[in-house]
Amino acid sequence: MWTLLHGFTGSPDSYSRVVRHLGVEQSPFMPALSGHGRDWRSRAADSFEDEVSRLLALMTDVERPRLVCGYSLGARVGLGMLSRAPRMFDGAVLVGLHPGLDVASARNERRAIDAGRARLLREGGLATFIEAWEALPLFASQRSLPSTLLAEQRERRLAHDPEGLARSLEVLGLAEMPNYRASLAALDAPVTLITGSLDIKFSKMAKQLADQNVRVQSKLVDGVGHNLLLEAPSFVAAAMTEVAELAQR
Predict the structure, then answer these.
(1) What is the mean pLDDT of residues 163-182?
(2) Residue 173, C-beta contacts closer than 8 angstroms, at least 6 positions apart
(3) 3-class DSSP state of 54
(4) Predicted local confidence at residue 25, as pLDDT
(5) Is the pLDDT of residue 222 over 90?
(6) pLDDT for 188 beyond 90
(7) Alpha-carbon torsion angle 118, 123, 124, 129, nearest 10
(8) Which CATH number, 3.30.43.10, 3.40.50.1820, 1.10.1060.10, 3.10.20.340, labels domain 2-247?
């Protein structure tokens, strides 16, 4: 059974198009991550590892093969789960993964960036923040997508509480995440890392990470950027199907 973890400012609905392409008989488990949704206080986490623990506890009844797919923030949290409990999972697809920062100066720099973003959420409001977030170069490839898709994504983002997203940045931000590179290199379950060819930084990281473990493969999707749930859902679904088949061999 698949567990699907959305990205920052996303929601379980972010996977709707992937699930339609997937065509699984059993509905995936799609939890909302800490800080997301109007009811975010009911699942607030105090640290990145606390969020990993919370999600692992929710998965005790998930049937095997136990598989996880995560996008961006969800990929980072998913890797945390795989690292903490490697025998609990039979395979994974991680989209736009960053494995964690390994230099203190980079952590400090990212923490300052996320602090500024949290301040914008609290002082400028949700709509102002989302406009700035969508203007980031990381998401430039989305500007050619149909306006209906972009409108759906924006509606999903505007359904959040700005304080919840601010807390997500402070607790689950890249600077607060452990460096999981060594854990990924040691995993025995099949893992597929997917990136878009226009997402050069993350594609380079995926290739480097795949080179460290024969059970990890990287896949590149031509002509798209960071958010493959939005830009290439059929490719994500195909990678999930392939990993599920590998996990059952």
Answers:
(1) 98
(2) 110, 111, 114
(3) helix
(4) 66
(5) yes
(6) yes
(7) 10
(8) 3.40.50.1820
